Amino acid sequence: MARRPDGAEVAAAVQRVFRGGLLSGKSALQPELAAWTDATASELRARFVDQPDESSDTFLVKLRRQLTGAPDETIALAAELLFVNMAPLVPEQIGLPKKLEILGEVLSWADRPMDVHPDLKPALKGFLHGGQGFLNYRWAQFQILVLLVERLAGTEGPEREELLDDPWRFRTLCFDIQDSIGHKKGRAQIHVLLFTLFPDWFQPIASAHHKHEILKAFAEELPDPTANDDKDLLTLSRTLEAQTGQPVDFYDEPWVGRWRKGAVQHEQRGWLVRGHNVDGHDFIPAWLDQGYCSVSWREAPEIPAGATKQQVRQAVAEAVPEATAQMRAAAAYQLHVFLTVMQPGDLVVTVTPDEVHVGTVQGPPTYDPSEGLDNARRLPVRWATAERPLVRADLPEKVQARLPLPPTVYDISSVAAELAERAGLEAVVAEELADVDVTKPLELPPVTQELADELLLPLEWLRQTAEQLQDQLQLVLHGPPGTGKTHVARALARHLAGPDRMELIQFHPSYTYEDFFEGFRPVRGDGGSVVFDVLPGPFKLLAERARKDPANPYVLIIDEINRANLAKVFGELYFLLEYREEPVTTLYSPHDPFHLPGNLFLIGTMNTADRSIALVDAAMRRRFAFRRLSPEKPPVQGLLARWLHARGLPDTAARLLDELNSRLGDADRAIGPSYLMKPGAARPGGLDLIWRTQILPLLEDQLHGTGVDVEAEYGLDSLRAAVAPPDPPAGSPFPAVES
């Protein structure tokens, strides 16, 4: 069978760690440690599986708490299981430096020094794309690995060896463990582990859905399917290899085009269709019994399936001419979704006060008025929960928040994968729908010493700042000018989200809701005319990107956040800053409720010399965490001195700045070090020029009308006279380096 490059090397390394550990009981990283024993696995199970950490912290933060005080053997086993988990993944999912960083973090918790063996490091480059679920459900995959090791380590040596040599018995054991924990969130780990341990028997495929789609597309090549997807894939790959004389990789041509075409052609989505208490009727029993869902709008005549938006709008306008424009727009939007946008393969959800039902669309819509106009427009649905509905109160909070909205039809793709899994439909969930699942925890990258060194700020302060952002989702960095607020915000955003998932905007006094979120804008119409259309602003555009990619963080930096009228700019969005994932009706799109995804973070910067933090309204104070950057306090205190010291330069500039701020005696008027961390200060006369053209004019503006002689009190001559040792004469070169 064909294997992608590096697959054999990674598989060999995983076998060395996993199989070798279970046969010898010894750690691959620290051979003197008995890490792969029944006792060690039971210790790890007791800490991780039996005492789950339900907080919103990242996987590593929670794992660290769970392993506090654990023996070195337990920590070594945890690290080696994470090696097994991460090694197969390609760099596009987790890069080699990131994998080593995670493993190094875990190993640092041990009392003795430990590191990844140099022979194992090359295997961390990976070879397989595990799908988004592989990143989102690390806790579930780790859970399966822990339970699997405990089960194997607890068997007698000969029996254990037989299980590790028999691919089908090992597969059965893996899925037995999955069944025992009551969910399937870690199933991708099973599929990847089967290949890495038995590459001649299993395909390098992480997705059960992909396996199913491949077998469905090549059904003619399998006259006697066994209902065991992995056995059938083995038979299929050997058959195709014999026919073509070429190795088979189902992600390469000519194979991938064949099964991908057989899969869902559109982007699978999830929809809620209301059937309970519709004008006093409960249609859900009939839906479940006869296998369909329906919508009403009895005033409108039959509209053909696949009708365009314009056709639906026209039909609604003719049917209810007396209705308001807003009501007609809402009706047209939902009818168009039901008749055209919803496609076979999509998931459908409907709710009662106590129950939730989940099914899949089976075909195009029909019009059948035989039982009345109230449910004449129908979509065929195979309901998976007709006999065993989901209990609404048992669903996760993020799912429940999406269910009580008033529209008859609306998109709930962000929670559909979770509902499908609970309904036993995980095999039909396409990868794109799993990718937008918001019910899984989001992991922010840990703040590293490298970032702290780059910013010359304390690592602990940066970690606390990132933790505040993780917990609060909105954060403001505030302080006087020159303290590096925007620089820190951008560096932190790049570290947490990457350069392609961050955006910066700047508020100003005339900034509006329409600029920020959504509003009418002139656009060019037909024949060169100008018409007005509702266009999204940067906040809504970034929110839409984040909603489609919930496994990754997105950051919007709002520079000078206090220079706009915040209540007017945010409007009803204030509610969403506190209640993420709970949709609201917005001003310009009332037919399409908007929710703010939990993976979109906001970092504001606020110049306290421009406007005091005391003037920020209470609503914003409650929704944002605030971190002060001030020259007289850590982490900014001593920043310029650290910057100069790192470059081997004298600390003259730092002493001058400290003297200036000491004389000012006002934290909000203090001058930050950024003014002096510039190449211009190194040129002859550069320091004098910066002081004369940037610092003194700022102080003159702030102290206008106070009677203070700014030049005499805060000029360089006065400051130089106060610091020792004496500085060179004014105008001489001042050593500084590029920032």
TrEMBL record:
<dbReference type="InterPro" id="IPR052934">
    <property type="entry name" value="Methyl-DNA_Rec/Restrict_Enz"/>
</dbReference>
<dbReference type="InterPro" id="IPR027417">
    <property type="entry name" value="P-loop_NTPase"/>
</dbReference>
<dbReference type="Pfam" id="PF07728">
    <property type="entry name" value="AAA_5"/>
</dbReference>
<dbReference type="InterPro" id="IPR011704">
    <property type="entry name" value="ATPase_dyneun-rel_AAA"/>
</dbReference>
<dbReference type="InterPro" id="IPR003593">
    <property type="entry name" value="AAA+_ATPase"/>
</dbReference>
<protein>
    <recommendedName>
        <fullName>AAA+ ATPase domain-containing protein</fullName>
    </recommendedName>
</protein>
<dbReference type="GO" id="GO:0016887">
    <property type="term" value="F:ATP hydrolysis activity"/>
</dbReference>
<feature type="domain" description="AAA+ ATPase">
    <location>
        <begin position="471"/>
        <end position="635"/>
    </location>
</feature>
<dbReference type="GO" id="GO:0005524">
    <property type="term" value="F:ATP binding"/>
</dbReference>
